[in-house]
Amino acid sequence: MEAEPPLYPVAGAAGPQGAEDRLGVPDGPEAPLDELVGAYPNYNEEEEERRYYRRKRLGVLKNVLAASAGGMLTYGVYLGLLQMQLILHYDETYREVKYGNMGLPDIDSKMLMGINVTPIAALLYTPVLIRFFGTKWMMFLAVGIYALFVSTNYWERYYTLVPSAVALGMAIVPLWASMGNYITRMAQKYYEYSHYKEQDEQGPQQRPPRGSHAPYLLVFQAIFYSFFHLSFACAQLPMIYFLNHYLYDLNHTLYNVQNCGTNSQGILLGFNKTVLRTLPRSRNLIVVESVLMAVAFLAMLLVLGLCGAAYRPTEEIDLRSVGWGNIFQLPFKHVRDFRLRHLVPFFIYSGFEVLFACTGLALGYGVCSVGLERLAYLLVAYSLGASASSALGLLGLWLPRPVPLVAGAGLHLLLTLSLFFWGPKPRTLQHIWTLYAVAVLWGVGSALNKTGISTLLGILYEDKERQDFIFTIYHWWQAVAIFTVYLGSSLPMKAKLTVLLVTLVASAASYLWMEQKLRRGVVPRQPRIPRPQHKVRGYRYLEEDNSDESDAEGERGGCGGGGRGDCAEEEAPPAGLRPGPEPAGLYRRPCPYEQAQGGDGPEEQ
């Protein structure tokens, strides 16, 4: 009776089928090593590389969508809460019943001062914060400060509202500067992942051609500002679904209003001090604020969980290693660049036109004539028009670069001239469709303005070492413009329209002059970015001072302890190799592993 074969063949021994298996490969000690540890026979390196970079490109798209949605939710919650809060605090009955003699108007004025005045100092600290925390973490921290502002409205007191408003004012410029920088970096990374074969041929140190990422930048900025302008519509949801049910109609709120539009003075002169028919219950207010807090927390999670890093870790280290003094000075040194000086009027106008849409157009023309209960619908019309028209920024793919930006300025010029001669009557609904049309058209101009400026900055300043400085300067000038509007809120409407018109004409003329200079070949003067100064060079065992040495090695001055002067004399290279430069990899110091083995590194091989 034959013995049954073993269930598992003994390693190294020939099985019952002989010294070869069914595939004809020898078994046991004679088996070739390549068959055991070699590459997978069906492995296609080119296909795997293509799939890898496709996943990278999808990751970039995910980053852009997450950052855009996070910015939309953050700004929408902030605007919606601030609008609802100011309307409630404006009502005399609400103040007296809820807060008594606490001085709520004084708290509101100081809160608005904190939001509008604090960003003036942002040029001093924004680049330092972005370089210190990194672009993604700066976005997350700023969104968290917006959420902090929302949370303080659960307990409305001076010591909660005013400090949170000051913190919010400090976070405004860092948030939007890091957002602009982030979208630009995503466009550059998408180009790298789409043209990886060209990058391999050119080498890792070779920069891509100038303007190569511009098509992707146009698309990503259009996506970002489509989401951003939707924030104005999201901000009206508390008004539409909650606060409008408590408001008086226009015959009560506008009873003493005499002039609207171009004939008005300040903001809603003569507006009734009581705008609420019934006071909302505290429980309902807490529910609305809790929903807003949940949305703000969702925005934080979007930025934290779905947004990837804007730079590689080594790039982040390089950006910080230029020196904090240089990081502080470089935004001021960029004033030497004539391109930035020519774009400053457009930066200022970009802040003017958004505030005019939310205050001058919506309040001085809209609420003054059709009532507070229709304010939300006017801003929704502006928001939807701006969001849909952000796709017009893609015209830059086919048209010359100045066309979208100048077209938006031209549309705003026509609307401003029209508003200069239009004064609708109070408590009249016959102009409501005209107001909606003006709001939509103003949104179209705003979209062309925002997408045009951000895309232009990303194209003119491709160096990743400068982008955070450039976007900081852009949003700082916007903050200066918003502060100016805050100071001049009591001016007549004609004075506001005159300032808006002069700024618009100056910005368009200055921009066209800049483009003319660039066509003539005038070279801009850019400040030099210092080289990174790393305190640690390479790995520890490649440093001059070996941090892994023992005390005994340090005392006897072995090769691992001191410099090369403490080691035994090295063997001279062959005579034929003496004249040329020494290869960096052949005559290096042995690593700790080689020292432990008793060898002297590659020299003895």
UniProtKB/TrEMBL annotation:
N-terminal signal peptide: none
InterPro entries tied to this protein: UNC93B1 (IPR043268)
Residue ranges crossing the lipid bilayer per the database entry: 60-81, 111-130, 137-155, 161-183, 216-243, 285-311, 343-363, 375-398, 405-423, 469-489, 495-514
Location of the region described as Disordered in the Swiss-Prot/TrEMBL record: 1-29, 524-605
CDD domains: MFS_unc93B1
Domain of life: Eukaryota
Keywords annotated in UniProt: Membrane, Transmembrane, Transmembrane helix
PANTHER family xrefs: PROTEIN UNC-93 HOMOLOG B1 (PTHR46744:SF1)
Name of this protein: Unc-93 homolog B1
Protein's organism: Rangifer tarandus platyrhynchus (Svalbard reindeer)
